[in-house]
Amino acid sequence: MTRPLGLATREAYGLALAELGRERPEIVVLDGDLSKSTMTKYFAKEFPDRFFNMGIAEANMVGVAAGLARCGKVPFVSSFAAFLMCKGFDQMRVSVAYAGLNVKFVGSHGGISIGEDGVSQQSVEDVALARALPGFAVFVPADEHATRAVVRAAADHPGPCYVRVGRPKAPVVYPDGCDFRVGRAIQLRDGGDVTLVANGLMVAAALDAAEALAREGVEARVLDMASVKPLDEDALEAAARETGGIVVAEEHLLAGGLGSAVAMSVARRRPVPMGFVGLDDTYAESGRPEELMAKYGLTAERIAEEARRVLALAR
Amino acid sequence: MTTTHPAVDLDRLRDRARELRRAVLEMIAAAGSGHPGGSLSAADIVAALFFHELRHDPHRPDWPDRDRFILSKGHAAPVLYAALAACGYFDAGLLRTLRRLGSPLQGHPSVRDLPPVEASTGSLGQGLSVGVGEALAGRLDGRDYRVFVMLGDGECDEGQVWEAAMSAAHYGLINLVAIVDANGFQLDGPTDEIMDLGRLEEKWTAFGWDAVTIDGHDMAQVVRALAVPRPDWGASRAAGGAARGAVAGGAMSGAAAEAAGGAARPRAIIARTVKGKGVSFMEGNNEFHGRAPTAEELQRALAELAAGGAAR
Ligand SMILES: Cc1ncc(C[n+]2csc(CCOP(=O)(O)OP(=O)(O)O)c2C)c(N)n1
Ligand SMILES: [Mg+2]
Questions:
Q1: Is some CB atom of chain A closer than 8 A to the CB atom of B126?
Q2: Domains in chain A: ranges and CATH
Q3: What ipTM score was computed for the predicted complex, to two decimals?
Q4: For chain A, what is the radius of gyration of the CA atoms?
């Protein structure tokens, strides 16, 4: 099946944020001189008094958001995922997570699909860093519809959140809208032979992989794990029990990302053979997004291969 | 600008500062660890804030209109805890639980464990940014509270402090006050040797602040410097309105607002202090940056404080 390209998830974020701004006066937005790229520009244009450009100073931006949250505001804080998470991490740790403050962080240009700008701008550690912070929720939506639902859920969620969105246009996975719930996997396809777990752009790749496997007579279940934390451990346990093998795919380093989270849960609740698709202890490079995804193995083919390996082990 | 406080009883504030010092020493000695030097250097300023300048209510730590105090140099937590207890935020008996398992008096201030604490600090460099956020929220909501943030001089090595300073000036936060406890020492030695801060007052001025240098142990000077007027956002918004259009977002640069009338810069107070102030063998002795007094040292220190009280 061909999935039409929809909006980039960053674009969907910007639109959803402006929409939320109309409903909720307590929402304020901070950006680090990237509002034209993170798409907070829509909010800035409509609500100039509630938008604060903090310049190229991410550490301060995170701390300022903490102060605003302490006074009852609901700050959304944006920059490229790499700069926000890495330069703001200690501030997220002490000023936000330790203090238990209600700040929403949205990192755009996540993963390597940002393309030509290269490694310094490609965020491949952000999910691991955000996951590590006690009390943080972490969401990675797959398409424009999921993003809208995730951003609204983040605004409603009582506590700090990290949301990762991407630069390129994303294939539409939820043409009829997405019923996203914090801590709940979304089953996009049922199957009894193996389970493919993914988030972000890898959800579309997992669906493609499931179709390829079906042509070989293998029925794969596909779970969109947009909610990395909290994680839907019940859905994973059921998948392990009912399909006997799990493959996780993410546009992120294998260390500390979705795969690590799923593996820990599966090991604890119902160990089964597992496979992992992601960046294995390496950075990528400059190139066109689709070239990079192919070269670094973030493809439907790699997911299908990994599924075959897991199936062999599970037998 | 001191008109709101016609009769300041400086002697009473000096007594309060001495009580804070006593509590700090007893607390740290009982805990067996902590940071006496930077708690003692800050005591006069903290006393002037909590017993004179701050508008606050110990029965309502979450009062939206309270003046805020953020201890960015979180290792001086004992002097903050002593002040909160003396004001009645909690029972003074709790001070003896400092740093003990299960105590809300964490080694460095924790807003989750002790709500009257305004920010969780201890990783130096972060408090002023939180203060900028609180001051921005005050401006957004049109409230007239002020936010006071105390930093160490060594802490000013942190780049984040200057990011925060720049943003406070950019947003014209006249309700924000930074106080640098300039005691001349950081952890490894004198600030001149570890990382020379150069001309600190000029740095703050260059970042767009209304900076003054005072003797941080001269109570009259301290009280005068802290008397920053409450913001009247209606007036400054009207004044800054014309200038604002040129700047994206809610920005009202200090310069723009000032040009439109009114002192629109945040206040920086460089308080020259003595690390370990009040105890002869701790003054200027950086060994007491982060070591508790022994039982014998505690007795000598308390005796000195008591005697010093009479001499004043
Ligand atoms: C980011 C960070 N680095 C290092 C430390 C360890 N540390 C604690 S106190 C201190 C020295 C602080 O000096 P100063 O700010 O001048 O404080 P004071 O002299 O008032 O004690 C250091 C380096 C820390 N708490 N945070
Ligand atoms: Mg110092």
A1: yes
A2: 5-171 (3.40.50.970), 186-314 (3.40.50.920)
A3: 0.95
A4: 19
